[in-house]
Fold this sequence. Notes:
single chain, 348 residues, alpha/beta, Rossmann fold, 2 domains, nine-stranded mixed sheet, four-stranded parallel sheet, globular
Amino acid sequence: MTTVRRPKATRILIIYTGGTVGMVMDNESGALKPIGFKEIRDNIPEIVKLGYDFSVHAFNPPMDSSNMHPDVWIELANIIEKNYNDYDGFVILHGSDTMAFTASALSFLLENLDKPVILTGSQLPIGEIRTDAKENIITALEIAAARKGGKAIVPEVCIYFDYQLFRGNRSKKYNAEKFEAFYSMNYPPLAEAGITIKYQRQFILKHPEGKLKVYKKLNSNIAVLKIFPGMTEPMVEAVLNTPDARAVILETFGSGNATTAPWFIDCLRRAIQRGLIIVNITQCDGGAVELGRYETSVQLKELGVLSGHDMTYEATLAKLMFLLGQSLSRKKIVELLETSLRGELTSG
Ligand code: ASP
């Protein structure tokens, strides 16, 4: 860890995990591969002008975020816990591919967070002339440092990308090419950066009353069933009988609808009787599950399939891992799944 200290300056911890932001083209293979944080810093001398005290915790080796794993989320939560009292904010440089998963997971792992944790990255490596990395990093740092009345303006886990700040557990990578790689369909941006950074304070989480609590356990015994017209019973049975699975994310059509074919309903019934938790989220990018709105979801509701409301796939997955990781009764898990814990869902 490298540290530069100035008296009374805002203190930011940059955690560099990897991602395109710090990649160069490998001459032999022609593929992008990660480089160290030093090369990133050399390409962005402007950050010194911000006048903050920076420390850098760099992963060695840096990773492509497609290799992300729940153990790394715990590691990130531990790094934040260890440094929490020494810094005003945290910026995590991360590949865009799984950034929304990491942001969602951290939001659950860090209860009563009172400081900004801003994830960012880029679509083009920092060394490229047209890179989007510089703007993303500089503004993410400014947001992590922003305070009013002695308190952080954004006490949440967020993603900053292409002039927009989103709640982490509401975000999704939706475009593999555009600089505007993320959106948050079911919740407004928390800030937009133009000439100034305009914060939408009415949408930002309130400061917590309790002290930071960091959870250290995640359970990834989860299966995902994305339905489609023409799906077969063996496929559905295989997913629902995934060894050790404790929960299944059921990705349905529209507002939570699925085929009413008796074999399908029977498969779900048997799975629920075996104790599996089944959460229904929509395959649509925006909108919410509303069980019972159409005939095609009435039976799901009767069976005990839970509503994921308007949660993203990423948030649902992270929330299940988080809840299954705690020693909670099935009843409590079911209750908390349908409750907003960190602003991840809109109920009612
Ligand atoms: N594959 C890269 C990663 O997620 C893509 C990116 O950084 O944008 O690490």
